[in-house]
Amino acid sequence: MSVTTGGAKEALDELLEFHWMMDMIQTVDVGIVVFNRDFEIKVWNGFMEAHSGLLPSDVRDKVLFSLFPDIAPAWFSQKVKSVFDLRTRAFITWEQRPYLFKFRNYRPITSSAPYMYQNVVFSPLVSATGAVEHVCMMIYDMTDAASAKKQLLSLQVKEAELQEQSDLSK
After folding, report:
1. Is residue 90 a part of any domain in this protein?
2. pTM, entire model
3. What distance in Å separates the CA atoms of residue 73 and residue 104, rounded to the nearest whole number?
4. CATH code (residue 86)
5. Where would I find the PAS domain in this sequence (predicted)?
């Protein structure tokens, strides 16, 4: 095998790997959004498309806040500042804030929540130059877990009330 043929095979292998990695990003059941320091969206995966109704071509290079005015720019900017500046991850849990994106709950039969509860992870993306110019935001649907926890808390409150009534009647 010649050096040229080996190089072509390696290039083809890298292209095929890139293709299946992109397919994975598009089909994973997690929202993936990549944005730059100006909050311009660069990547918008299939999860985000399915739940927002917006195509990647609709959001690419648009500022996140112009598409989602419910997200407060000052709060959000502060939340991701450490991700850009300190190269650390940041998190939002559904207990702190039920959702970042006001997506309708797509399982209304099994859950009474009108909107999707979400956990969000912000991860710095370090470029080849070592700078963090982009952040990857991953949105996890936590609706089932949130609904179950809320049901459990409700049952605990009812049980405590029944116990209190029982104690009073003695």
Report:
1. yes
2. 0.79
3. 22
4. 3.30.450.20
5. 19-85
